[in-house]
């Protein structure tokens, strides 16, 4: 890993992600959503017709770039390692509930930081939820929680998900017509807001490569602080927040307050609870949604299953009216969050090897 394994390296990676995210917003991506893995996977789900929320449908090339950039970096470093087979069904449902929690809040851990860097006070409650969710997941890990060991797989198994992402990227670039109901694209709303295609692809590839070399992970950073008192990864997260704030301020994108924030709502309780669910699911699955994409690019099919669970969760969230909007949460969202929390807690207790909490 060389330089990127150092403190300076992880700080640099965080700074680059923060600056790129703010610049992508300036160039057309939705406000406070320069890079949001959950939101972008939700848009991809819509583009593929998994949900019919017309304002959030777009094949976001940044997501494909993360996976392919990670794959290239892993191949160059001889770290591409097909593996998997560790509780795939549970990982799928953890991904699904993580997405539901994120869409109740309206953002992944990366967007939580970007919303803070843009002045959105509502993200404070989302971040606190992530911390509590991480503590819950971290406590289970300290008590022996594990989804089992991944096993070395056939080389072909590691190529399937990157190949799928490459196919989606080709669809995004060439926009072939398969009829009226194949690939959907928003004409208004967040799905219609995007930076130029090649800029998005380049940004995704760069972030994917850097994140693979540095092991950048927001949830892993918070987990390491509480579980191992390790502050290496958190320095990169803090760097992301600081440099995104600097860039937003310089570009006139910093708007402090709670009311009227872009693609956000002010229900503090469910911002908090939604991200507790998401945070716990991310930690128990082994990383934030960005990290899961990076791992999938390295050949980890378990991470790929989690990502597919998130994409399916986006479809479920919108089809069953669970996803929030700037107007607030839906009447059904609290039930979904509670069900998700019950699932996470049940899995956490059932799959631990110790029976005393510190």
Give a brief outline of the structure:
63% of the residues lie in helices and 1% in strands. The chain is built from 14 helices and two strands; from the N terminus they run αααβαααβαααααααα.
Any chance you could write out the topology, listing elements then pairs?
Layout: H1 7-26, H2 37-47, H3 61-76, E1 83-84, H4 88-105, H5 109-117, H6 123-142, E2 151-152, H7 155-174, H8 197-214, H9 218-228, H10 232-250, H11 268-285, H12 289-297, H13 301-319, H14 333-350
Antiparallel strand pairs: 1-2
The average pLDDT value, as a whole number, equals 94
- What is the percentage of strand-forming residues? under 5%
What is the number of beta strands? 2
Secondary structure tally, helices: 14
End-to-end gap = 34 Å
Helix content: 55-70%
Structural class: mainly alpha
Show unreliable segments. Answer: none
Strand order of the largest sheet: 1-2
User: How many domains, as an integer?
Assistant: 1
Largest sheet: 2 strands, antiparallel
Which word captures the global form?
Answer: globular
For the CA atoms, what is the radius of gyration? Answer: 19 Å
SSE pattern, N- to C-terminal: HHHEHHHEHHHHHHHH
């Amino acid at each position: 890993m060389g330089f990127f394994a150092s403190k300076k390296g992880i700080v640099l990676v965080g700074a680059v992600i923060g600056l790129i995210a703010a610049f992508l917003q300036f160039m057309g991506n939705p406000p406070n959503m320069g890079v949001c893995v959950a939101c972008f996977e939700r848009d991809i789900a819509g583009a593929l017709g998994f949900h019919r929320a017309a304002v959030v449908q777009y094949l976001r090339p940044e997501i494909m770039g993360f996976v392919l950039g990670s794959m290239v970096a892993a191949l160059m470093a001889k770290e591409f390692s097909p593996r998997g087979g560790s509780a795939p069904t549970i990982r799928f449902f953890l991904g699904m509930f993580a997405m539901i929690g994120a869409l109740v809040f309206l953002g992944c851990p990366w967007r939580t930081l970007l919303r803070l860097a843009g002045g959105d006070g509502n993200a404070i409650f989302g971040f606190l939820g992530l911390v509590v969710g991480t503590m819950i997941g971290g406590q289970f890990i300290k008590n022996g929680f594990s989804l089992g060991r991944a096993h070395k797989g056939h080389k072909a198994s590691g190529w399937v998900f990157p190949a799928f992402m490459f196919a989606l990227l080709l669809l995004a670039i060439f926009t072939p017509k398969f009829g009226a109901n194949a690939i959907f694209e928003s004409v208004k709303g967040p799905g219609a807001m995007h930076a130029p295609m090649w800029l998005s692809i380049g940004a995704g590839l760069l972030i994917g490569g850097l994140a693979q070399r540095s092991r950048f992970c927001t949830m892993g950073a918070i987990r390491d602080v509480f579980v191992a008192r390790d502050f290496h990864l958190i320095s990169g997260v803090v760097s992301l927040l600081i440099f995104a704030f600097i860039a937003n301020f310089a570009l006139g994108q910093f708007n402090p307050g709670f009311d009227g924030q872009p693609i956000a709502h002010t229900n503090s309780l469910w911002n908090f609870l939604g991200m507790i669910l998401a945070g716990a699911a991310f930690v128990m699955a082994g990383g934030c949604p960005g990290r899961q994409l990076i791992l999938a690019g390295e050949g980890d099919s378990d991470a790929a299953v989690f990502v597919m669970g998130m994409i399916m969760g986006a479809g479920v969230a919108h089809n069953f009216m669970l996803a929030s909007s700037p107007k607030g949460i839906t009447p059904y969202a609290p039930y979904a969050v509670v069900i998700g929390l019950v699932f996470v807690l049940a899995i956490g207790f059932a799959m631990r090897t110790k029976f005393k909490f510190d």
